[in-house]
C-alpha cells in the first residue's frame, strides 16, 4: 500500500526540524509541494532547502502541484470547502501518478499539521478516492516560535489562552489572552490601546521581524511594517499574542 508522511517542519528555521521528522524525510521517495505562484516561490524553496540539508538517501524527487485558486468573495466556509475539494482531486491524481503501489510520499507542513493547516482535512478527502495509509509527524509551531523569540510565556498564571483568527477577533473581541493567526486585516487595531501585543513575521527566517508593546504605542507601526514586508516579498506569514 502507498504510504504518506505529513511532516511538520517548523516555522521557518531548519533547526526546528525534529529527529523524528528527519527519519520520515529519509523514508520518502516523492515530496509533494503546492506551487502558489512566483510571489510565494520562497515557500517551496525553503522546503527544498530542508530536504537538501537533512535527506541523505539518493533519488528523492519533488513534485510541484499548481494550487487551485480560492474564491475571494462569497461565503468564506463554502469557498474553503470548494478549495479543499479541488486540492483533493489534484492530490489524488498526483499520488496515483507519481507513487508506485508501495511508494512513500510526503507533504511538508509549515509549523504543525494540526494547527490551521489544511493538509489532514484534504487527505481525508483523498482517501475517498484512492487507498493509502498516512502518519503525522508533529512540528514546532509558529506559536512556540513567537513566544520563544519574545521570551514570554503563552498564558498568565492559571489562565487560559485562545488560539483564533483575525476574522474571529473582529467578530468576538478579546477577553484574556489570545494568539491570532491568519489576520490580513490587522484586527488588533480594533483592540483597546492598552492591550499588550507581541507580534512576529517570517519567524525563524533571515527576514524575521519582531515588535512588542501596547496596541496604542506600536499597533500602527506593526501595520506599516506588515504592509511594507508584504509588498517587498509578495507574501507574509505573521502571528501575534494579545493580552487584555
UniProtKB/TrEMBL annotation:
Transcription is among the record's keywords: no
Query: Which residue ranges does the record assign to the Tetrapyrrole methylase domain?
Result: 3-218
Keywords attached to this Swiss-Prot or TrEMBL record, sorted alphabetically, are:
Cobalamin biosynthesis, Methyltransferase, S-adenosyl-L-methionine, Transferase
Biological or metabolic pathway of the protein: Cofactor biosynthesis; adenosylcobalamin biosynthesis
Q: Name one GO biological process term.
A: methylation
Which Gene3D superfamilies does the entry mention?
A: Cobalt-precorrin-4 Transmethylase, Domain 1, Methyltransferase, Cobalt-precorrin-4 Transmethylase, Domain 2
Q: What EC number(s) does its UniProt record assign? A: 2.1.1.152
Which domain of life does the UniProt lineage start with?
A: Bacteria
In the UniProt record, does the keyword Methyltransferase occur? yes
- One MF term in the entry's GO annotations: precorrin-6A synthase (deacetylating) activity
Question: Could you identify this protein by its name?
Answer: Precorrin-6A synthase (Deacetylating)
Q: Which gene encodes it?
A: cobF
Amino acid at each position: 500500500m502507498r504510504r504518506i508522511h505529513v511532516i511538520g517542519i517548523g516555522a521557518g528555521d531548519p533547526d526546528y526540524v525534529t529527529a523524528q521528522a528527519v527519519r520520515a524525510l529519509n523514508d520518502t521517495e516523492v515530496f509533494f509541494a503546492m506551487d502558489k505562484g512566483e510571489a510565494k516561490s520562497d515557500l517551496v524553496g525553503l522546503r527544498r532547502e530542508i530536504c537538501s540539508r537533512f535527506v541523505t538517501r539518493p533519488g528523492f524527487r519533488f513534485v510541484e502541484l499548481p494550487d487551485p485558486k480560492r474564491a475571494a468573495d462569497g461565503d468564506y466556509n463554502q469557498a474553503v470547502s470548494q478549495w479543499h475539494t479541488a486540492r483533493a482531486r489534484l492530490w489524488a491524481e498526483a499520488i496515483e501518478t507519481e507513487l508506485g503501489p508501495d511508494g512513500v510520499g510526503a507533504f511538508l507542513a509549515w509549523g504543525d499539521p494540526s494547527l490551521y493547516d489544511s493538509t489532514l482535512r484534504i487527505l481525508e478527502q483523498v482517501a475517498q478516492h484512492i487507498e493509502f495509509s498516512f502518519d503525522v509527524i508533529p512540528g514546532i509551531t509558529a506559536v512556540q516560535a513567537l513566544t520563544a523569540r519574545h521570551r514570554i510565556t503563552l498564558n498568565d498564571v492559571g489562565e487560559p489562552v485562545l488560539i483564533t483568527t483575525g476574522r474571529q477577533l473582529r467578530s468576538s473581541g478579546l477577553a484574556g489572552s489570545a494568539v491570532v493567526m491568519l489576520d490580513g486585516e490587522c484586527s488588533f487595531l480594533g483592540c483597546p490601546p492598552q492591550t499588550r501585543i507581541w507580534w512576529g513575521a517570517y519567524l525563524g527566517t533571515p527576514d524575521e521581524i519582531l515588535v512588542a508593546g501596547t496596541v496604542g504605542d506600536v499597533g500602527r507601526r506593526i501595520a506599516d511594517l506588515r504592509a511594507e514586508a508584504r509588498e517587498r516579498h509578495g507574501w507574509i506569514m505573521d502571528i501575534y499574542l494579545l493580552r487584555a
